[in-house]
Structures are given as structure tokens and as C-alpha cells.
């Protein structure tokens, strides 16, 4: 029996989504999960190992930015079978984000609406927590976001020495003041030149996909701009902003299962530009081994999960990794590298 899906999830889903998340985080901040899971969740198999540019990870399933925004629970998350953990987005200053409700479940679709607006305990809190991190069983990537050029650079410089890799998100669909500036290739280009000048660890740039055809050409132009710089990878997430009256802002982004077809389309487009020269991390609607298999076959180097973790629970990475091995065996595929971009 799946204890999470059959016992714990029904209880958690009676509680408002953000309160349930906070409850989960309270548990994950304790040493209990590490004692309970130890390293049993990590599937150790050479065929799953991948290199995301300069970052070597034991399997291609990561947890996406947004689950542990303030770097409070990475020790437990590193024990849950993920090949790597991304915390953040860390912002320079403490900020409340948008008013609640700002996270609402859509259980029939295994999806989640949100309009968080980048709440953050700020850079100092994250740095303090990361300074005590010690040895972790899998690599830790720290994601940052900011509203200005200088804020990005200050946050980047402080956190890079404390992380195994850095990820810079260039947008936030739910931040009221966001003009999407950093998504304009002419703004992104000099900004990325400055970031890579400071780069000492593997670096990933996170960008949104697109829903409308008219956004597609602009986004692919941004990808070309990113590729001019020696970044280790691009993280893609097909977020789109839609009306949802249960959210305080009246609109938000939908994540989870309904986003998978879009994710696969964007990965194919981006892979056509990058080939194997640059890693692609895909986040959006991944929750099963088949989803991960399809994303990697479309050109992703790894997949990242957030909403699927909420619906599937702590065994999700292990289940996906075991399933991936089975599917590769059945199709005579030697390893994840060989699967990448196969269709
Ligand atoms: C509640 C919530 C908060 C998020 N916060 C962040 C964030 O702070 N920074 C970021 O880069 N992405 C953030 N994301 C986006 C996720 O990292 C991921 O790209 C997206 O949820 C798609 O994956 P999923 O369908 O598995 O959830 C957030 C997503 C959700 C649902």
C-alpha cells in the first residue's frame, strides 16, 4: 500500500494547500526524514548517471525550485531519491509575496494553481542555512531571482560559494512589477555576460516556455542568446498565466499534469537548437516514469518535479528511476545519455 497516497495525502488535502505545504516543511526541517529514509530512496545504477554540463548527478530526476524556497529543508530532500535538489528562489530582501490564498489544488487534473509572488526570507537567511549544510548525498543547486540587475549579482555572489551549482530564473509570472525585461534578449545578453564572468560553479538559466505561437519565436531567440554564453544548461518550465478566481490575485499559473504536452513541445524546440552541447532541464507536469522517459527522449537531460511531488509523495523519484530503468531495458537503451533526444 502507498502510505502517502492512501493515508497521508487525503489528510493533507483536507487542509488549505499552503498550510499543508507548511506542515510538510515543518516535518522536513527535522532530522526525522533522514533517519526514516537514510539513503534507501536513491536508486544506484550507472545507467541513470548524467552530466548536466559540469554538474554530475546520480539520476536525472531533480526537485524543482519553489518547494524549499528558503533553503530550510534541503538535507531531507537530498535523502528522497532525487538526483539533485534545487532550492530557492532566494531573493535579496525578505518579502511577503502576494496575499493568500495563493496556492490552490486542482486534484482532478493533478495540478496546482499558484500566484506566490516570490515570498522570501531573504538572502541572509538562505546563506546562514547553507553555511551549515555540511556534506550532502546529492548535489545542491541554489536558484535565485531578483527585480534588478544589481540584486541578481549580489545574491549570486553571496550564494555561489555555498552551492554546488547555481540557477538563475529570469522571470516571475506572478510578480506584479515584473515587466519580463530579463526575457528580452537585448537585456538578457549583457546580464548573462556579467553573470558568466562571475561563474565558478555549474550555471543554469531558467526560462518559461510558451503557450502562444507568437511567444515562440521570441523565446527561441532568447535561447539563442543564452547559448552564446558558456552556461551549463537551460531550465525550461512551460508556465502560463491564466484567470483563477480562487486565488487572491484573480489569476495565477497552472502547474502539474496538464502542462506536460507543452513541456515536451518546448523541449523539442530547444533541443533542436542546443543538440547535446548544452544540458536541458525540463520542469512541468512530470510525475511518472513514462513522463520522464518522454521528456528525455524529446531532448531533456533531466526532469524536475514540484507538483508531482505533492501528488505522488516522497517515493516519486525512486518510482520514476526504477521505471526508467525498466523502460530503457525493454527498449534496449543502454543509459539515459543514449535515451536523450531519441525521438
Ligand atoms: C507553489 C510554486 C512555487 C514556485 N516557486 C518557484 C520559484 O520560487 N522559483 C522558480 O524558479 N520556480 C518556481 N516554481 C516553478 C517550479 O520550479 C516548476 O518549474 C513548475 O512548478 C513546473 O513543474 P511542476 O509541474 O512539476 O510543478 C514554483 C512553482 C510552484 C507550483
State the main characteristics:
4-stranded antiparallel sheet, binds flavin mononucleotide, 343 residues, 38% helix, alpha/beta, 8-stranded parallel beta barrel
Structural features, described:
Helix 6 packs parallel to helix 7, helix 8 crosses helix 9 and helix 10 crosses helix 12. It contains 13 helices and 14 strands. The model has no long low-confidence stretch (mean pLDDT 95). The strands form three sheets. It has an eight-stranded parallel β-barrel, surrounded by five helices. The chain has a four-stranded antiparallel β-sheet with strand order 5-6-12-11. The protein has a two-stranded antiparallel sheet with strand order 1-2. It is 38% helix and 18% strand. Strand 3, helix 4 and strand 4 form a beta-alpha-beta unit. It has 343 residues and is of the alpha/beta class. The protein is globular and about 55 Å long. The site of flavin mononucleotide has 27 residues, from strand 4, strand 6, strand 12 and helix 11.
Describe how the helices and strands are arranged.
Layout: H1 3-12, H2 17-28, H3 32-37, E1 50-52, E2 55-57, E3 61-63, H4 74-77, E4 84-90, E5 103-106, E6 111-114, H5 123-131, E7 140-144, H6 149-159, E8 165-169, H7 185-198, E9 203-208, H8 213-227, E10 233-237, E11 241-243, E12 251-256, H9 260-274, E13 279-283, H10 289-298, E14 302-305, H11 307-312, H12 316-330, H13 336-339
Parallel strand pairs: 3-4, 3-14, 4-7, 7-8, 8-9, 9-10, 10-13, 13-14
Antiparallel strand pairs: 1-2, 5-6, 6-12, 11-12
Helix pairs in contact: 6-7, 7-8, 8-9, 9-10, 10-12
Flavin mononucleotide binds at residues 64-66, 69, 88-89, 103, 112, 114, 116, 118, 143, 145, 169, 206, 237, 255-256, 259, 283-286, 305-308.
Amino acid at each position: 500500500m502507498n502510505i502517502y497516497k492512501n493515508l497521508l495525502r487525503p489528510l493533507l488535502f483536507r487542509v488549505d494547500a499552503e498550510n499543508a505545504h507548511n506542515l510538510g516543511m515543518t516535518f522536513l526541517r527535522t532530522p526525522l526524514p533522514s533517519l526514516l529514509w537514510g539513503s534507501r530512496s536513491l536508486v544506484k545504477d550507472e545507467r541513470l548517471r548524467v552530466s548536466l554540463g559540469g554538474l554530475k548527478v546520480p539520476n536525472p530526476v531533480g526537485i524543482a525550485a519553489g518547494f524549499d524556497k528558503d533553503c530550510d529543508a534541503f538535507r531531507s530532500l537530498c535523502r528522497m531519491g532525487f538526483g539533485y535538489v534545487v532550492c530557492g528562489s532566494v531573493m535579496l530582501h525578505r518579502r511577503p509575496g502576494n496575499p493568500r490564498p495563493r496556492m490552490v489544488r486542482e486534484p482532478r487534473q493533478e495540478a496546482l494553481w499558484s500566484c506566490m509572488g516570490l515570498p522570501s526570507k531573504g538572502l541572509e537567511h538562505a546563506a546562514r542555512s547553507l553555511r551549515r549544510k555540511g556534506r550532502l548525498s546529492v548535489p545542491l543547486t541554489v536558484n535565485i531571482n531578483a527585480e534588478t540587475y544589481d540584486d541578481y549579482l549580489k545574491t549570486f555572489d553571496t550564494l555561489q560559494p555555498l552551492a554546488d551549482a547555481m540557477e538563475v530564473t529570469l522571470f516571475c509570472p506572478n510578480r506584479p512589477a515584473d515587466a519580463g525585461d530579463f526575457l528580452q534578449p537585448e537585456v538578457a545578453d549583457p546580464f548573462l555576460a556579467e553573470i558568466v564572468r562571475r561563474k565558478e560553479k555549474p550555471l543554469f538559466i531558467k526560462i518559461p516556455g510558451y503557450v502562444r505561437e507568437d511567444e515562440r519565436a521570441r523565446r527561441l531567440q532568447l535561447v539563442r542568446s543564452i547559448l552564446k554564453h558558456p552556461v551549463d544548461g537551460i531550465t525550461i518550465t512551460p508556465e502560463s498565466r491564466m484567470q483563477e478566481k480562487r486565488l487572491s490575485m484573480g489569476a495565477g499559473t497552472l502547474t502539474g499534469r496538464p502542462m506536460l504536452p507543452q513541456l515536451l513541445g518546448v523541449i523539442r524546440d530547444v533541443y533542436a537548437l542546443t543538440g547535446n552541447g548544452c544540458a536541458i532541464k525540463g520542469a512541468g507536469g512530470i510525475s511518472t516514469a513514462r513522463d520522464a522517459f518522454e521528456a528525455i527522449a524529446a531532448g531533456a537531460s533531466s526532469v524536475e518535479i514540484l507538483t508531482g511531488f505533492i501528488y505522488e509523495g516522497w517515493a516519486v523519484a525512486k518510482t520514476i528511476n526504477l521505471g526508467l530503468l525498466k523502460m530503457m531495458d525493454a527498449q534496449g537503451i543502454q543509459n539515459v545519455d543514449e535515451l536523450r533526444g531519441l525521438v
